[in-house]
Amino acid sequence: SSQALRYTWFSSPQCCPLSEMPEAQFRVKCETVPGDRVLVVGGDASIGSWDPQKSKVELATDANSYPVWSGGGSFNTSGQIEYKFVVMGGGGGARWENAIPNRKLQVRDGGVRVETEFDNKRIKEKPLSGNGSAPTPASSTAPAPHVGTPASKPVQKPAEQPAAFLPPARNSGALNGTADAFVQRISSEDAKRRSWRNKLDLSRTVLESGEVNALSELACLQAYLTWVASGQIKCEEDGGHHRPCAHADASRKITAMLWQFAARGDAERFIARRIFPSLPSYAEQFTVAVPMTRIRDIAHRGDIPHELKQEIKHTLQNKLHRCADPGDMVTCERLIERCRRENRYSEAFMREFEIFYKELKEFFNAGGLDEQAQQLAASDAGVRPAVERFLWFKHGGGGVDDQLQSLEELRKHTSARAETEQFLLLLDLELEKYAFVLLSQMAGGLENGGQGSADWWQRLLRSLQLALRQSELSGIGVEECVAVTREFAAAAAETSDSSKAPFVWLRLAASADRALRICFRLTQELEEAYKNVPALGRALHIDSHAVAVFVEAEMRTSMLFQVSKLVQLVMQQAKRSANLPLWTAISAGSACGKIVRCNALSEAWSSKLPAPGAIVFCNEAGGDEELPPSCRGVVVARDLPVLSHLALRARQLGAVFGCTSERPLFDKLLAGARDGAAARLIVDASGDVRIESISEDVLKLSQPDAKAMPEAKAKGNAQVGELNASVQKVMPVVSLSDSPQTAGSKAASSGKLESISAVAGFKVPQGFAIPFGIMIKSVTGPEVDKAVAALETALGKTPDKIADCAQVARAAVEKCKVPKEALDALVSGLPPGTERVAVRSSANSEDLEGVSGAGLHDSILGVNAKDKADLERAVQQVWGSMFTLRAVQSRHAAGMPLFRGVAMGVLVQPMVSLEGAAYAFIAFSKHVLENDADSVYLEVCVGLGETLASANEPGTPYRLVVQKKAPNAVKILSLASFSFGLQDASGGPVSRRVDYSQERLSSDRGFLEQLAREVAAVAVKVEESYGTPMDMEGVVLERGDSREVHLVQARPIVQA
């Protein structure tokens, strides 16, 4: 909610002055866990020179101020410093802010106070008042006791977290972490720890000491405890004497720590839930000093022979009280079975023995579903009706659907208390396993007939909603599961109404795309997590087949596996019914090259691509990448907006590009693409993508004349725009509409849009430009010259240093001051009432007739229009973005100058007020994929347009084609599936989850088509005014009954 996004700053009840007046005080809202430390780390020696271990600025909190951490320090350098907040876990893991770029701090005379939130770009900076001191918790040299941190609910008593436990932050950068060392640690220690108690204690130790840093290590711990509990790792007596209460105590501590890990993310929660059944019970009867006394009474009964007494005493009673392990349950079961066969013992003895066996199974958590459910019914009258209803349906009283519904009702009771009561947790896990079986039966029935009928659709969507709710009850992907369940429920009511076709199929395809992301995101994390389990198995001498079965079972028995099967059925049938393509053609055509596989498209720059050109297969593309010049084709395992910056650059380069969110399609294509092999990639505009093997000779013959290749053309002919450095004052862009040489083509085009907006029927923010002349005069000095020279050397000789050198150059530029006169002119010139502005790049190397340069530089949204310091930081960031890695790579590939001759104008526009419903769009006045000049192609999303342009958010936009001639027929190609939309807010855009069941664009076809016609009409008028096909960005605002189209920029369409 919006309320949750507001800042709430708490003052500490105790204050103490620092020994000297600091140059900066920080207050950051940051959720942490006990043992975490919060540091300021950055490009000054006092904050570690980017090494967290060396930072001297550590923040503190206490019970009254948490979650706000505060503190300060002095710096070795003045001017602008880059930094980030870092959470250090007790085990040494570091959690960096990764959702935002480096923060910038302008150290002022008298000091500065910074207030912000971890991983959120919104920030407040103000001069320190008085003597510069600011309130800090009582201990300013070390973290205060972290008593205010909300931990997970206490587990079944006694549930205090061990004082030594310092759970580290998730290592998201390298899931494997130090897994090899962890495997060695577990295997070597296991050899020394022969008993079950000691093996449990090993697990407790590695958790408490922070040795479990990464998912792969948590997965290895799961495998280890599973193999111990199943007997694949042998347990034996070690000469010690420890009653079962010692095992229960270790289990209690391990459980408490695992819940802490489960709070970190879906993958951690999934693995933790898999570990819980391998731990013994720590119910009250097992934590007393002398537990399980019933076996002692049995061994001393007077109605059994002496030999049997001795056998029970030595093989069970004494063994359990010395060194219990899961083998004792097998021993007990065999003894009872033998006594039954001999059929010569009293009924009272047998009854007591079987009661003890049930107690033993409870201790080892070996009870079955029915047994545990009946135990719950006997102990909790409030839940008894739900248990009885479920068991009645389970044992023949109802079908699969009835069983799942009653199971869901029972799980609402068990899952709500699973973190506080171990018994309910274990029952919940058994219910989850049974739900998996029922959903598998449902999926099998749906796969075997009736596909496409109204009844089949109803059964499928009901099954899918039940499956998503099961995942929600397990705590996996909760908010997304809730949103997607609503979407499927809303669409389900329309599947039998033929008048809703094909719109309802588009709705279902979009919701299926969103649901698949939940499944595949977890699957990818788990695939990485379990990669080291085979190595652990080998080190522990576990049968290789058993290891393989373990890993496969963990991947294929999750609830989301069944969700993915059902969602695939929805996706396939919906696309078939709507006649939708299986692939998205970003850039159609065919290209030859050698296959290169990488995880992310950005890795292609650091790889040595083959000289004949590369066909790159990758799992991910962030949207801000610059394609390497030798990249001939790209295939990505996620959908991307066709009009994103990455897509524009691909078409400009002439690279063939296809993508899909359906992983099986990608995997099938990848199976025929051997790494390093010569191949031809074919992407049809209709959405068909194929790969063909070719010979080396064919590859050589397929190479185009170097002079005809797009990148060769760029290197030979691409020129930066004209540059006039004589203007030294801020100008209204409307006065620059015919002067791109003054502040860049983007600023000039914005001015032209302003001049034609009234007659063309759209609105444009009244903008101002900081011209090239101010930038050239301001961005200078030895530090800039040195950094640029180093970057030029790296481009020519040391490619591996390009990224680092570009960052240094950017930092040097961002230290350059913006003239006070320019800032004054901006503040006074903006329209009255302007609260926030967008600060955009307008370089002479972008928005050119032959080079779009889309997305290479930064645009800063939501800047405080009344705060000159905020404005200056934004302008500095835009100037510095001349040296983003993608901009440097692009200019180098095009043969443009690196710095001399390149200039950055800055376009400043009031933010369009987003009161009411806001829909951002990118429109091409020519359908470039079909090369159709008679239609307009547009993509739309809920919220701000950064979602479309950057392609950082997984999912698809609304895609539409509108005919220019009356009656302006609209073809809907897809509906949106982005999980989040960006909303304007004070301090910068914030991300909000979208519920398409409540979104009119996804539920009202007529409304969507009319909006598309209105945007297309504007696109046609802009094209007529410029005299060429145009690429434009804007937003549609709907307030009550009125609707307005606002344009923020337009540029000529650039194609290879």
Please provide a written account of the structure.
By secondary structure, the chain is α+β, with helices and mostly antiparallel strands. It contains 36 helices and 29 strands. The strands form six sheets. It has a seven-stranded mixed sheet, with helices on both faces. A hairpin with a 5-residue loop joins strand 5 (79-88) and strand 6. Helix 2 (179-192) runs parallel beside helix 4 (215-229) and helix 14 (400-416) runs parallel beside helix 16. It is globular. Residues 1-22, 130-167, 172-177 and 706-717 have low confidence and may be disordered.
Based on the model shown, name its key terms.
disordered N terminus, 1056 residues, 17% strand, alpha+beta
